[in-house]
C-alpha cells in the first residue's frame, strides 16, 4: 500500500500528541496516512507494552489510519546503527510516502531527538539504490520521501510551518485519550506522572492555541523542517 504521509513516532501516543490534527485533516482531504511506532513504550511508568499496543489500535480507529505498525525497538535503548536504519528503510520503501513526519528534533525525552535523527538518516539512505533491502522475500526499490517534517513535543521550538487543525481538535483529543493508561484518568490508581495530570492536557491545548494564534485560527500544530520549504504558487500558502 502506497501512503501519502507516513508518521514515525518513537512511542505509541507521540503521533497523537504531536500531529494527529494534521493526520485527521489530510485524511479528510482524501490522503492515505499511516503511523509506525518504533517502540512499544515499555518503559512507561504506567501501563505496559501489551496495553499500549491495544490503545494504539483504538487511537488508529479514531484517526482512520490506512496502516499502523510497530517495529519493536527497545524503548530507551535503541541506537542509530545499521540494523535500526535498515528496519526504517524497509518501512519507507514498503509504503513509499511522499511525506515523512517524525518526532521533535530535540526534546525532554532523549528518545525523541534520537528517533528524529534515525528517521532523517533512513529517509535519505532509502533513496540510495545500492542499499539492498527485501521484505517478505521480495527485493525493494529505492525510495526517498520528498520532505521530512518534525512535529513539536514538550519543549517549545519555533515552527517553520503551522497546520490549521481547528476543525479536528475534538477528534485529536479523543485519539490522545484512547491511551487511558497514560493520560488523565481518575480511575487509574498507578503512580501519577508528568503527562497523567489534568494540567498536561491543558498544556497541550494551550500550545495548540498558541500556534493557531500565529496563523489566525483557533488551533494549530507546528512543524520544523531540515530542508527549506519551497512553493511554485504563493496562494498555496494561504
How would you explain this protein's 3D organization?
- With 238 residues, this protein is an alpha/beta fold.
- Helix content is 36%, strand content 18%.
- The protein has six helices and nine strands; from the N terminus they run βαβαβαβαββββααβ.
- It has helices at 14-28, 49-63, 82-95, 110-125, 169-177, 198-214, and strands at residues 5-9, 33-39, 67-73, 99-102, 134-135, 138-139, 147-151, 161-164, 220-225.
- The strands form two sheets. A seven-stranded mixed beta sheet has the order 3-2-1-4-7-9-8, sandwiched between helices. Strands 5-6 form a two-stranded antiparallel ribbon.
- α1 (14-28) runs antiparallel to α5 (169-177) and α2 (49-63) runs antiparallel to α5 (169-177).
- The longest helix is centred in the last third of the chain and has 17 residues, at 198-214.
- The chain is globular and about 50 Å long.
- The two termini are 31 Å apart.
Amino acid at each position: 500500500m502506497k501512503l501519502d504521509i507516513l508518521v514515525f513516532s518513537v512511542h505509541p501516543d507521540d503521533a497523537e500528541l504531536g500531529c494527529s490534527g494534521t493526520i485527521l485533516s489530510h485524511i479528510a482531504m482524501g490522503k492515505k496516512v499511516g503511523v509506525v511506532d518504533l517502540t512499544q513504550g515499555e518503559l512507561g511508568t504506567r501501563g505496559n507494552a501489551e496495553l499500549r499496543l491495544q490503545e494504539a489500535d483504538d487511537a488508529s480507529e479514531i484517526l482512520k489510519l490506512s496502516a499502523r505498525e510497530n517495529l519493536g525497538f527497545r524503548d530507551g535503548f535503541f541506537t542509530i546503527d545499521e540494523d535500526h536504519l535498515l528496519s526504517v528503510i524497509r518501512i519507507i520503501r514498503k509504503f513509499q510516502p511522499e511525506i515523512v513526519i517524525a518526532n521533535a528534533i530535540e526534546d525532554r525525552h532523549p528518545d525523541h531527538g534520537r528517533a528524529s535523527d534515525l528517521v532523517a538518516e533512513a529517509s535519505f539512505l532509502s533513496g540510495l539504490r545500492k542499499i539492498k533491502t527485501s521484505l517478505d522475500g521480495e527485493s525493494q526499490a529505492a525510495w526517498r520521501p520528498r520532505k521530512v517534517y518534525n512535529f513539536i513535543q514538550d519543549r517549545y521550538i519555533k515552527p517553520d510551518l503551522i497546520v490549521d487543525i481547528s476543525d479536528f481538535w475534538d477528534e485529536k483529543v479523543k485519539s490522545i485519550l484512547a491511551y487511558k493508561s497514560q493520560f488523565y484518568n481518575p480511575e487509574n490508581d498507578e503512580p501519577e506522572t508528568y503527562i497523567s495530570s489534568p494540567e498536561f492536557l491543558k498544556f497541550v491545548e494551550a500550545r495548540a492555541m498558541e500556534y493557531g494564534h500565529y496563523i489566525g485560527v483557533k488551533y494549530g500544530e507546528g512543524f520544523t523542517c531540515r530542508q527549506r520549504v519551497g512553493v511554485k504558487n504563493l496562494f498555496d500558502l494561504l
